[in-house]
Amino acid sequence: GDCALVLDRTIAYPAGGGQPSDTGRVVLGDGRATFAVRAVEISKEGVVRHLGRVEGADDDELSASEASVASVFEPGADVVVHVDVDRRVLHARVHSAGHLLDVAMSEIGLGPESGLVPAKGQHHVDGAYVEYSGKIDGLDKEKLARDLAAKMTELVERGGATSAETMPYDDAAAACGGSLPAYVAKDSTPRVVRVPAAAAGCPCGGTHVKDVREIGDVEIVGVRVKKGTTRVSYTI
Question: What are the Threonyl/alanyl tRNA synthetase SAD domain coordinates in residue numbering (predicted)?
Answer without folding.
Answer: 190-233
